[in-house]
Amino acid sequence: MRIIGNDWDEILKEEFEKEYYQNLRRFLDEEYKTQTIYPKAQDLYNALRLTPYSETKVVILGQDPYHEPNQAMGLAFSVPKTTRIPPSLVNIYKELFDDLKVPISQSGDLRPWAKQGVLLLNTVMTVRAHKAFSHAHKGWEELTDAMIKALNKRKKPLVFMLWGNSAKRKAEFITNPRHLILKSAHPSPLSAYNGFFGSKPFSKANAFLKESGQKEIDWRIE
Fold first, then answer.
1. Among 148, 169, 143, 146, which Cα is nearest to 159's?
2. Euclidean distance between CA atoms 154 and 158, whole angstroms
3. Taking 70 as the threshold, does the pLDDT of residue 17 lie above it?
4. Residues 6+ away with beta carbon under 8 Å from 190
5. Residue 63 region, left (φ>0) first, then alpha (ψ -120 to 50), else beta?
């Protein structure tokens, strides 16, 4: 079954056959027919398509997709270039500037990160328009648990950035001492001052990658 189009298909093959995933697919088929759902169905697995399992170096884990029009594109925190940058991403850029003095971009399209091995994943991967967390507890959590468990098995060291409570709950699946776990508050305006600002995740990730003999991430977005 080719859903992703790269090595993630083999990694998640057993999950795609499980009852919870079949139930999730049926639920999503009905939702896409009857509701406005983000991201578009064809963008659903963009994070996995752009960042193959074998090429993942950093995992940025958020909560669920943006739920307003023309925002969600299948990559956590990313929006199309022509879309106004949402508050959470504004705060991410602020922290990136404070951390590494990376100039604040006018584009919210984070595909340059994804193409370098930054997996931009949400714990829940779809949402109804205007209703945050409306697709929670429908099966996505089990699938993203499986993704984190699979990444945990990687021999090459990875960085896991867990932003917000939903993401932090995945820490229990990251048991491999090779990996670095960076937990903080979510970058949304409601919580960024409770531990996201000042957490310096970008410099910590690059230092860890360098120490483990891997190429650092160029965090600039042109």
1. 148
2. 8
3. yes
4. none
5. alpha
Structure token pair of residue 36: 């406005």
SS3 37: strand
**Rounded Cα–Cα distance for residues 134 and 150 (Å):** 26
Mean pLDDT throughout 91-120? 98
- For residue 172, give the DSSP letter: G
Give the position of tokens 């963008």.
43
Cite the DSSP H helix spans in the chain. 8-11, 13-17, 19-34, 46-50, 87-100, 111-114, 140-152, 165-168, 201-211
Angle between helices 87-100 and 201-211 (to 10 degrees): 60
Per-residue pLDDT tens digits for 120-174: 999 999 999 999 999 999 999 999 999 999 999 999 999 999 999 999 999 999 9
Instruction: Mark whether 64 is an active-site residue.
Output: yes
* Alpha-carbon span 65 to 128, nearest angstrom: 9
Kindly compute the dihedral angle of the four CA atoms of residues 206, 91, 70, 75, in this order, to the nearest 10 degrees.
20
Name the active-site residue from 9, 29, 43, 64.
64
C-alpha 85/C-alpha 25 separation (Å) is: 30
1 falls in which pLDDT band (50, 70, 90)? low
* C-alpha–C-alpha distance, residues 58 and 158, integer Å: 6
Q: Is the pTM here over 0.90, yes or no?
A: yes
